[in-house]
Amino acid sequence: MPAQLAAYLAAPALAPVWAACRARLEGNDLNVSGAVKVDLDEAGARALSGLRVPVRAGHRKVRLADLDDALRASMGARGLLAVLVELGGPLTNRRASAAALAADRADLWLSLDEQLVGAGLAGAGWAGPWLAGVRSSGLLTRARAVAPSAVRSAVAVLTVLAGRQPLGEHDVSVLRAGLPAPAAFEIGELATATCGGDAHGLGDDRVAGALVLRALAAAYGQPVPSTGSQRRALWTVAGVAPDEVSGTVLLWGFRPPGPGPWAAMMSSRAEMGLVTHVTLQEWEATAGGQQWARQGQVVFACENPQVLQAAARAGAGTPLCCTSGNPATVALVALETMVAAGVDVMYHGDFDVEGVAIAGRLFSRGVKPWRFGAPDYISALESGPGGAADFQLPLAGPVGPTPWDTELAAVMDERGLAVHEEALLGVLLGDLGKGTAERAAG
User: Fold this and answer.
1) Phi and psi at residue 394, to the nearest 5°
2) How many CB atoms lie within 10 A of CB 245?
3) Are 178 and 333 in contact (CB under 8 A)?
4) CA distances from 289 to 116, 220, 248, 337, 365 (A)
5) N or C: which end of the chain has fewer CB within 10 A?
6) What pLDDT does 177 receive?
């Protein structure tokens, strides 16, 4: 375009005209037809008149065909579409783009169904609910460019798993108990074989992994996993060994009574005042076969690492486990195994919606409440200088059932305030300190 004309058309007074034209054209298949309404000041009206497009100042209609004809007759000798590109960059045919995107999505869903047919999985009872859940979740829509490869990888994984044993026919009691099952595959090896050599292709942040987990949830009648422990449980029940080293249970003051190098190591660490992380890998290799405490011995457990840290600083003598929030698999099996061995495991957590839910799951496994009833909640609220006024964190919703203390849910819902277990730190440390005196006396 001649520089003189380019400068004329790029005048700020004409900017509303070009913006309105661009919006109209991008929404109607770039068809130069119809009209646009623009607010023109005197300068804009004069500029359009200079192009021999007669308008008046104010809210006026401009016919696109008239503007196109005027631009073609100018020294630039080009139509409205070309001028808009030169003034503001490429035009987007939004209708065509939307149609192309819809066609791509339809092709992706057709490809997924065809791949399931080819793998012999399309008739599985979980296939329909899985596909419906994936579609409603928008997972593949958000995945965009990586969706096709993620679909291929997910179907490849499901084919391998179903080839070992039809999905849904495993013993789902391991999901309820949180116990590890014998694994036929390491997750990294499975990912390498099915995700184009990417050993991390089934990670928590990958679309293929999310697709497979949704399929496993549908196959075993479980909710879509939202936590690390839930994801690990689903992988485990399908015969896949998940990451065994990141999920841990924190231990303080454990002196296992049995012989062997692991018991000696734990006792040595306790004597040195060191906190120990035990992973699922360590559990399966050695710790799971050891006696962690004597029958009838009291072992405490908490939800928050700060409680264990405070116990370590105080040199508390009573053994303490920490789940660090929602328990990982290794924490569940450790607590449950101690309970089965006759150890009195006492648990305290946060007085909030999730904390009560975690406590309920542990108590259903035989763990006992540790200052986790209605009186303890009320006492915590009233213990500060300002009483309940010191607590400003509202509950995130109604508290679930508390069968170990039916008054707890009612009083928490009535007060509507959360109390984290750090607020009871002095009381909890007092209980833990009793073990120090008892051990010294013994």
Assistant:
1) -75, 155
2) 11
3) yes
4) 42, 29, 17, 10, 19
5) C
6) 40
Q: What does the chain come to in residues?
A: 442
| Whole-number percent of the chain with pLDDT over 70 | 91
Q: Look at the alpha carbons of 171, 173, 175, 179 in this order and tell me if their dihedral is positive or negative.
A: negative
Pairing outcome for strands 240-241 and 320-322: unpaired
Place of tokens 């549908």: 218
- pLDDT tens track for 58-103: 667 888 998 999 999 888 888 899 999 999 999 988 888 777 777 8
- Torsion from C-alpha of 412, 417, 420, 425, nearest 10 degrees: -80
Distance CA(355)–CA(203), nearest Å, equals 27
> How far is 49 from 251, CA to CA, in rounded Å?
83
**Per-domain boundaries in the chain:** 3-92, 95-241, 248-441
- Partnered with residue 182 across adjacent β-strands are none
* Complete DSSP assignment for 413-427: HHH-B-B-GGGGHHH
Which conformational region is residue 50 in: left (phi greater than 0), alpha (psi within -120 to 50 degrees), or beta? alpha
Domain 248-441: give its CATH architecture: 3-Layer(aba) Sandwich (3.40)
Residue type (1 letter), 386? G
Structure-block tokens of residue 66: 């008239």
Chain segment 276-300, per-residue pLDDT in tens = 999 988 998 899 999 999 999 999 9
Say what angle helices 207-219 and 127-137 make with each other, to 10 degrees.
140
**What count of Cα atoms within 13 Å lies in the side-chain half-sphere of residue 89?**
1
- Sign, CA dihedral 192-193-197-198, equals negative
